[in-house]
Specification:
Layout: H1 6-12, E1 14-15, E2 43-46, E3 56-58, E4 68-69, E5 73-77, E6 83-88, E7 97-100, E8 116-119, E9 136-144, E10 146-153, E11 160-170, E12 176-187, E13 195-201, E14 206-213, H2 215-218, E15 223-225, E16 228-231, E17 237-244, E18 252-259, E19 264-271, E20 292-294, E21 300-305, E22 310-317, E23 320-328, E24 334-340, E25 343-348, E26 366-372, E27 378-380, E28 386-387, E29 395-400, E30 406-411, E31 416-421, E32 432-435, E33 442-447, E34 453-457, E35 467-473, E36 479-487, E37 493-498, E38 504-509, E39 514-520, E40 526-528, E41 537-538, E42 545-550, E43 556-561, E44 566-572, E45 578-584, E46 595-597
Parallel strand pairs: 1-4
Antiparallel strand pairs: 2-13, 2-45, 3-16, 4-7, 5-6, 6-9, 7-8, 8-15, 9-14, 10-13, 10-15, 10-16, 11-12, 11-14, 17-18, 17-46, 18-19, 20-21, 21-22, 22-23, 24-25, 25-26, 26-27, 26-28, 29-30, 30-31, 31-32, 33-34, 34-35, 35-36, 37-38, 38-39, 39-40, 39-41, 42-43, 43-44, 44-45
């Protein structure tokens, strides 16, 4: 942007007359890092323009051709009739202006080729003076449901430069609704990679937004944004996402409405009536997958209360969740649930003394079954309890196969898969033990629609050693290896999910803060989608992703991040790649464990 040719600028430089805005110039936004909204704000942050579901926009060509100088305060009206005011705080005598991206000698940026850009002002032969490193404040005449744009600071980098952008959201009483802080990279690639900052709400409450960069990270640079996308109609709710807080002082489920574009909007927090165990002295929390289970008809949600040794049943309603039952898990410290037809099985295991209530603890554990009634209530299934392969096995998950004729349990400490055939009466057989073979420390599992079993191989958190294996089940309940432990090239490969069409599987690399994707062949062979480094999506080094869940249509994947108290949403692309589109935060730390969605 600073290398614009004087001849080009002089030839097309104009000044446009725009209506003066009465909005007060904004001061520089604080650099407080947050991805959360205060309680009751009911906003979700958007990382991809498609998730906004916009029905209106402001293209900055509305104020004039490229290199049109604009006042520090001006107003425009969108094609859809949305009136808004723009305020850029004056730091220097260099005016803001509009430019259009393109190959040099036009400004090359990380925006898309041909984008019209609003720029706060920088070094330019036609506008002599100092650069203007100021935030961009946009105020709406009438509050909107959603808004967003891509941001990039000006820079003199020869190729790329990292930065941290901030995005603040206010209501009409100028109350801060939330702040999103996100990293980005400035470049001259013209590849539409500039970071998108957006927000969405179920009510029209967004009255003001502020785009800025963190000067402590990015330096004092002017900034630029491309077209502003606007949502002026109420978003369509298509599903929900639920996260288990696992708090020792009282267990809760955080609920989020999911829009048809994959965005998440907070919908309340609901007590399970029981207790969690927090993160534990070893920092592993529940150390399991399946702590939350949603009934197939989406009417009931089942949650483990590892600190009070029981299971909660909550009814899903239009106004949220309502607790209808708490029932003993039949053991100590329930950590995982699986549901098929009229049967629910729970995996009980106390990894540490003090978790799961008072006493010496139970490191033997086992599974116990329940009958599920049409109204969601549970009743203990007599004579259904079975042991694991050994005491101290440190299991990670219990799961039914698709037909409900087999139960499988991953055992980390013993590196085996323990299975049970299930009779027509719902009762399991004695435990059947299959070694994990090529993997060690098997953490979690997922069956595809044909009964193929995928297991994550954590390798006891050994650096860059994580992987995943696939197995076929024999009629007698034993498992045989199909695809040996295929490395993710990352650390602590723990949680796993499979797409509904059986084409792709995704795993968390919890200690490295990323997700690996695999392709899955019809005969069960796994192959990394990104063989160079194994990474399909990055959650971040300070996130610790602990669970995964798909929307019911498998178009969106969500990850629960226990270290940052966030949930990230990704669009699942046709080639298996993931594009981050949304995030919510503010979840209690650090014991988060359990995610369900539809």
């Amino acid at each position: 942007m600073r290398r614009l040719l004087t001849a080009i600028v002089s030839a097309i430089l104009t000044t446009v007359a725009v209506q003066s805005a009465s909005a007060r110039p904004a001061l520089r936004a604080s650099a407080k890092v947050s991805a959360a909204a205060p309680a009751g704000a009911s906003i979700g942050f958007i990382n991809g323009r498609s998730a906004l579901g916009a029905n209106d926009s402001v293209d900055w060509s509305i104020v004039g051709p490229p290199f049109t100088a604009v006042p520090y305060d001006f107003s425009v009206v969108s094609p859809g009739g949305t009136a808004l005011s723009v305020s850029i705080f004056k730091v220097s005598d260099t005016p803001p202006y509009v430019f259009q991206t393109g190959p040099e000698p036009l400004p090359a940026t990380a925006f898309a080729d041909g984008d019209f850009i609003l720029f706060t002002g920088g070094e330019n032969p036609a506008f002599p003076g100092l650069e203007n490193p100021s935030p961009i404040t946009i105020t709406f005449a009438q509050p909107v449901y959603g808004v967003g744009a891509q941001l990039q600071p000006d820079d003199e980098c020869p190729s790329t430069c990292p930065y941290t952008g901030t995005f603040q959201v206010f209501d009409k009483r100028n109350r801060l609704l939330g702040t999103l802080t996100s990293p980005g990279t400035s470049s001259r690639a013209l590849d539409n990679s500039a970071t998108f900052f957006g927000v969405l709400s179920k009510k029209a409450q967004i009255a003001k937004i502020v785009f800025d960069i963190d000067p402590k990270v990015s330096g004092l640079h002017p900034i630029s944004i491309n077209a502003l996308s606007l949502t002026t109609t109420k978003p369509r709710i298509a599903g929900a996402v639920y996260a288990l807080t696992n708090e020792a002082s009282g267990n809760y489920i955080a609920a989020y409405d999911r829009t048809d574009t994959g965005a998440l909007i907070p919908a309340g927090s609901f007590a399970t009536g029981g207790l969690g165990i927090g993160d534990g002295t070893d920092g592993e929390g529940l150390g399991s997958q399946g702590a939350l289970q949603l009934s197939p008809d989406k009417k009931y949600l089942y949650a483990v209360n590892a600190g009070s040794n029981d299971i909660s049943v909550l009814k899903v309603g239009r106004r949220g969740l309502s607790l209808i039952q708490r029932i003993s898990s039949g053991g100590t410290s329930p950590i995982s649930l699986t549901l098929r037809g009229k049967l629910l099985y729970v995996l009980n295991y106390q990894r540490e003394e003090g978790g799961g209530g008072e006493g010496e603890g139970d490191d033997c554990g086992g599974i116990t079954g329940f009958t599920v009634f049409p109204d969601g209530h549970l009743s203990p299934l007599l004579n259904s309890s079975r042991p694991l392969s050994a005491c101290g096995s440190n299991p990670g998950q219990v799961g039914f196969n698709p037909s409900g004729t087999l139960l499988a349990v991953t055992e980390k400490a013993t590196s085996v898969i323990t299975s049970y055939t299930v009779g027509s009466n719902g009762l399991p057989s004695a435990p059947i033990v299959s070694p994990a073979i090529s993997g060690t420390f098997p953490f979690s599992l997922a069956f595809n629609s044909k009964g193929l079993l995928l297991v994550t191989d954590d390798f006891n958190d050994a650096s860059k050693a994580g992987g995943a294996s696939s197995f076929k089940a024999s009629p007698d309940g034993h498992f045989t290896l199909v695809s040996g432990s295929i490395p993710t090239l990352n650390t602590a490969t723990c949680w796993v999910v499979i797409t509904g069409d059986d084409r792709y599987a995704y795993v968390t690399n919890t200690n490295d803060g990323n997700i690996s994707g695999y392709s899955l062949s019809s005969d069960g062979v796994l192959a990394l989608l990104n063989p160079s480094d194994g990474i399909t999506a990055v959650t971040g080094p300070s996130t610790k992703p602990r669970d995964l869940a798909f929307s019911s249509d498998y178009h969106y994947l969500y990850t629960l991040n226990s270290l940052s108290g966030t949930i990230f949403g990704y669009a699942v692309n046709a080639d298996g790649s993931l594009s981050q589109i949304s995030q919510v935060g503010g979840l209690p730390l650090p014991g988060l464990n359990g995610l369900a969605a539809y």
